[in-house]
Amino acid sequence: MPMFRKSMIVLLLLALVAGGGALYGMKSTEDATVLDAGAKQAMSSSAREAQEDSITVYVTGAVNQPGVVSVAAGARVADAVNACGGLLPTADAEKINMAQAVKDGQQIRVPEKGAAKAAKNATATASSSDNGKARASTDSDADAGELVNINTADEAELDKLPGVGPSTAQKIIEYRETEGQFASPEDIMKVKGIGKAKYEKMKDRITV
Predict the structure, then answer these.
(1) CB neighbour list of residue 51: distance below 8 Å, 6 or more residues apart
(2) DSSP per residue over the chain, as a string?
C-alpha cells in the first residue's frame, strides 16, 4: 500500500509539471503573437508616415533621367533635379530657380541653352511683299517672332508681350515664385490682371 501511494504521488507530480509546461507554452505563443502584431503595426505606421512626408513631381527637359520622381515634402527644385541624375551639360541653369520650393504634382521643365533662339527659328516665317522684298532683319521683327517662355522669362522679356506692362510682368514673376511654374500657357490667366482678352492677344507668343 505505501508503495502504491508513492507511485500515485509521483504520477500526480509529473502531471502537474506537464500541465505547467503546457500553460507556459500557450502563454509564450500568445505573447509572441501580440509582439508580432505590434511589430507589423509599427512597420505599417512608419510606411504611412514616410509616404505622407514625400511628394511626387514631374521633371522634364535638360536632365539626365527625366521623369516622375518622389522627393521629401519641402524639397527644392534642386532636389528634384538631383533625383533625376542632375543637369545635362546643355542645361541653362540660369533660367530656372533651383531654390524654389516644389509642390506635389508640379511639373519642372529645365530649359536647354539657346532654347529660346531655337523656338524663334522654328516658328519664324519669312515675310514677303508684292514687290519681292526680303524679310526685314530689324530687332523688332526678331522680337515679334520669338516665343517667350513664361516659366523662365525675366521682366524685360515678359514686358514685350502684348497687353503686358512692367506691373503685369512683375505679377507673373511673383506668381511663379509663390505658386510654382506654369503647366501650360493657359495657366497664365491665373495671374491677377490677366483675363481671357489679354490671353488671346499673347497666346501665340508664349510657351512653357
Answers:
(1) none
(2) -HHHHHHHHHHHHHHHHHHHHHHHHHHHHHHHHHHHHHHHHHHHHHHHHHHHTEEEEEEEESBSS-EEEEEETT-BHHHHHHHTT-B-TTB-GGGS-TT-B--TT-EEEEPBTTHHHHHHHHH------TT-PPPP--HHHHHHTPPEETTT--HHHHHTSTT--HHHHHHHHHHHHHH---SSGGGGGGSTT--HHHHHHHGGGEE-
- Give the sign of the dihedral formed by CA 37, CA 43, CA 46, CA 50: negative
The contacts of residue 102 (CB under 8 Å, 6+ apart) are 55, 57, 71, 75, 76, 77, 79, 80, 108, 180
Of the pLDDT bands very low, low, confident and very high (cuts 50, 70, 90), residue 163 is confident
3-35 residue pLDDT tens: 556 666 666 676 666 665 555 556 555 555 555
Of 113 and 55, more confident: 55
In the block, which residue shows the cell 536632365?
A: 63
